[in-house]
Amino acid sequence: MRIALGVLMLLHGIAHLPGFLGSWRLATLEGMPYKTTILSGRLDLGDAGIRVVGAAWLVVALGFGLAAVAALAGRAWWWPAALGVALASLCLSGLEWPEARIGVAVNLAILAALLASQRLGWTGVTA
After folding, report:
1. 91 within domain boundaries
2. Residue 67 within any structural domain of the chain
3. How far apart, in whole angstroms, are the C-alpha atoms of residue 107 and residue 127?
4. Residues near 7 by Cβ (< 8 Å), separated by ≥ 6?
5. Cα angle at 72 between 71 and 76, to 5 degrees?
6. Which end of the chain is more exposed for a tag (fewer CB within 10 A), N or C?
7. How many domains does the chain divide into?
8. Residues of the domain holding 95
């Protein structure tokens, strides 16, 4: 379970990168036009504000990468790190609803798997 979660978190972290790249205008992404709004267009943050949101996407991407590597290495701290990053990612995905609806589903799956792995003792930590 730990290995599968590690791989899923690594892939999900990579999936966060377009949120950073698009908001910082570092890449033109098909199906993801540049915008300065969140919450389905209800709140306009402006250029600087959307860059802050983009930076959050990058931090969460890096957090998933770090948690994934720790999970794959069997480090004791991978589980709480993964839980925190998944919750942060869920919040970010909620801000970008409905565009990030797949991210919401993936985050909920990661959270469910994390809780199940903890409950069943499948975290596989070696300390």
Report:
1. yes
2. yes
3. 26
4. 68, 72
5. 40
6. C
7. 1
8. 2-120
Looking at residue 127, its pLDDT comes to 46
- Residue 53 domain-assigned? yes
Joined tokens for residue 56: 């959050």
In 3D, which of 10, 9, 18 has the Cα closest to residue 99?
18
Average pLDDT, 10 consecutive residues per value, the chain (127 residues): 93 96 92 92 97 98 98 93 98 94 96 92 65
Q: Is residue 65, in this structure, part of any structural domain at all?
A: yes
Q: How far is CA 34 from CA 7, 18, 46, 52, 118, in A?
A: 29, 11, 11, 14, 39
Peptide bond into 18 cis (omega under 30): no
Tokens of 103: 């991210």
Q: What is the pLDDT of residue 75?
A: 93
